Amino acid sequence: MPKWRTLACIAFARFLTAQAYDLSDGLVTQVSARLAQGAQKSWELGTRAEAILELNASSYSVVSHNALPPPNIIPDSLTNALEPFFEIAKNTVAGRAASNNYTQGPQPLIQDGSAADPASIGFAVLLANWTGYDATSGNQTLDYAGAAKDQLDFLLEKIPRTSDGAISHRVSEVQLWSDFISMVPPFLAYYGVLTKNRTLLLEAHNQISLYRKYLRDDKAQGLWRHVLLGNDFSDEGHWATGNGWAAAGMLRVLATIQNSEFANTFKNEQGDLISWVHEIHTAMYAQLDRNVLLFTNYPDQPVTASGNFYDAASTALLASTVYRLSLLTSSPFITDTSISKPIHTHLPLAEKSRKALAAPAPNGTHQYFTSDGWLTPVVNPDSFTQKGSDSPEGQAFVVMMQASWNDWQADGSKGGNGALGMMDRSKFAGGWGVWIGVCVGVISSVGL
Ligand SMILES: *[C@@H]1O[C@H](CO)[C@@H](O)[C@H](O)[C@H]1NC(C)=O
Ligand SMILES: *[C@@H]1O[C@H](CO)[C@@H](O)[C@H](O)[C@H]1NC(C)=O
Ligand SMILES: *[C@@H]1O[C@H](CO)[C@@H](O)[C@H](O)[C@H]1NC(C)=O
Ligand SMILES: *[C@@H]1O[C@H](CO)[C@@H](O)[C@H](O)[C@H]1NC(C)=O
Ligand SMILES: *[C@@H]1O[C@H](CO)[C@@H](O)[C@H](O)[C@H]1NC(C)=O
Ligand SMILES: *[C@@H]1O[C@H](CO)[C@@H](O)[C@H](O)[C@H]1NC(C)=O
What we know:
By secondary structure, this protein is mainly α. It has 16 helices and ten strands. It has helices at residues 3-19, 25-38, 42-56, 76-99, 122-130, 144-158, 180-183, 185-194, 198-215, 240-258, 267-285, 312-329, 347-358, 392-410, 416-421, 425-446, and strands spanning 136-137, 140-141, 176-177, 216-217, 223-224, 227-228, 295-296, 310-311, 378-379, 387-388. Strand 4 (216-217) and strand 5 (223-224) form a beta hairpin. The longest helix has 24 residues, at 76-99.
């Protein structure tokens, strides 16, 4: 029996099975549709806006190695992809105007008990202003720049703070949430770059630094707590999604600084952000369930503990941040290697998680997606100790995971050899063994 046929058969079979472990374009489209349908709350809209940019208009996303400020004129090729993004900004600003009788002055983009969540839409409003997006709504002319400024002033002037200056996540009292890091500092940094205001970039770093001081838990190897201080909500656990929000927000600030004219004046700050993201990755991936390859909702608790279960949403978010850290630390924009060398440490586990999430179920559906494209199982985004269904943020995290993986691949999958080398040996070998058996069997029975 000719060896080459056997080898070709094995290679082809392995190729086919390897392909099955990536999310198909069709599934990502379905996931995007559920995201569009589900995102209603302030932070869901802001997170969806970021997901749209990362997947479909990456030249406008700060995380994709693009020089800032972005081009004022939208290229024709991106008009359609950006339409739903700008609709978020427009509907938000129009809704704000209608709900406040068109008054100006410090106020959030959406009235919300959270001080931070509405600010997550701020970068989209800034970009609508920057590119001169359609500002007519009924008989009104919308003021995107004014709305962004009102949101900024609201945060800086009206929200209670800790004695050392950390801006509260809540309007009514001082309470610090890890979620804040994805909601506020990226807005401050983007505002700073577009208006050439270095102080705001510094403030983005300062808020992260303060939040880390409070929420990072030495006794849990550096995992971040979810909520501290105050009584509005209570959750001192090391919520997986919260650790993801923290890492993702820091990476957006890092990218914003890195791609701005201020990059050379913020070397220490970039170094901080890189090491703080890496620190979260190290703490989190030490807790990844090595069999299921998903995080649990509270990753340092047994899956059987009360309030705990496997959570595909945080698993997707964390994986996305691992690709981003690898990309940003091997960016050609970092010419000064004293800031960082490329960090690919957690790529092998992020890749395993991504493949686990993409795995087909035996009957051809997906194990971790419903038939209409909702990620499952996921934490209830409104009640963080409960399992939920139909999580809009979870949908956005899948889009971000896919987008960052696309970018990482396009950039040459740096650190990917390590990923291969550290693949689960038993499964890898078992896979080959099965295929050799099948191919030898088929080829000898057909008598090729
Ligand atoms: C990305 O573009 C595809 C193709 O146009 C579209 O189906 C999908 O909804 C978009 N995804 C997001 C998150 O905007
Ligand atoms: C808007 O104006 C109307 C009519 O003057 C008033 O009844 C309403 O309370 C105002 N709403 C707000 C939010 O100020
Ligand atoms: C709004 O856009 C204009 C024109 O691009 C720019 O000059 C201005 O700084 C922007 N304002 C804000 C708050 O970003
Ligand atoms: C603008 O439209 C709103 C809502 O339709 C209406 O109440 C208001 O009187 C209009 N204002 C002007 C100046 O026409
Ligand atoms: C930067 O922004 C802050 C906050 O809005 C403001 O107080 C300060 O005057 C701005 N600095 C410059 C140089 O525009
Ligand atoms: C496919 O299998 C999964 C369990 O692996 C099950 O939940 C789902 O209902 C099945 N779908 C169909 C269409 O049979």
